[in-house]
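HUMAN: Mind sharing a backbone?

ASSISTANT:
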Amino acid sequence: MTDFQLHTEDTAPDASHSLLKASQQSFGMIPNLHAVMAEAPGLLEGYQKLHSLFLETSFTDEEITVVWQTINVEHACHYCVPAHTGIAKSMKVDDNITNALRDKTPLPTDKLEALRDFTLSVVRERGEVNQAAVDAFLQAGYEKRHILEIILGLAQKVMSNYTNHLANTPVDEPFKKFAWNEA
């Protein structure tokens, strides 16, 4: 893999300075993912905006976690699975949900399972989801809006998961205790 610099506000391109400062303010640190992305200011800015927009969707914190972690696990992202485990804890998401997502075991409710199944269909079928899968998702209690909001979450996760694969981004110290490897 290519070696990518973990930028600070001092080493990053000028256009990334304010973005890294925002990361520091939001997270109390500059996550290594953001430090890598700072090399391309547009990528970091896009990622930060998509992150904020996805948090503002109609999904609950549990559902946001299901979408994020389903994609992270499917993409086998060594960085995002532990990071989003920590984020889920900060969002007070039940550990049973997080563990089921990490371990690919059943989720505690049929509705959350339907969300995981549909998210996987979107990822695996690259948006070419069959009507039966759409119908099952809607019958589980979701709306058409949720289909489009999953795409928003997927766009964000593609940016981070692919960056982490290419840069082999080191997991941040606070998230190392949530290390994950695909079974």
